Task: structure prediction
Amino acid sequence: MKPVGSFMTFLRSHLTKDQRRFVKFVVVGASGVPVNLGIVYLITAWTDIGWAPGARDTAAYLAGIVVSIFTNFLLNNAWTWGDRAAEDPGGFWRRLSRFYLVSATAAVVQFVTSVYLSSLMRGSEAFSIVLHGEYRLYHLLAPLAGVILGLAINYVANNVWTFRRRNDQEHPEDDS
Result:
């Protein structure tokens, strides 16, 4: 059996439907990282049209975020919540706009959490341990806490709002 097939068999036999959906969501989210970085690379490496200092980078970062959210939406729409999307084929644009809104909200929560926890940890010897140069333990822990909180908000909001069931009946999940 193929490794992917073995992995899916393992997931089906050891995890609940909701747990499998969460694993899919995390896999899709991770797939957005190279998309984001690829867009940033393409824009910064291939454009030179007299941008103001920092403007090209800002545009590249924004484009990377917008494109990676879109590709994450497409994958989540087809795979993570494909069973629910199939129940509502006409709601593509509604789901897309909700996905962007949820993603933006989760990003703001992640950022605020990271900044706030960093400010709290910065004064503590325990969290100010040097990991490398000026990079301290709180530089790792604060954003990680923000990522975890953002991930939770993103998953829950998308599960109950963006990709909510159109009816109360349970339908078998398509794990393909």
Remarks:
- Residues 168-176 have pLDDT under 50 and may be disordered.
- Residues 3-162 form one domain.
- The first strand starts at residue 130 and ends at 132.
- Residues 51 and 57 are 9 Å apart (CA to CA).
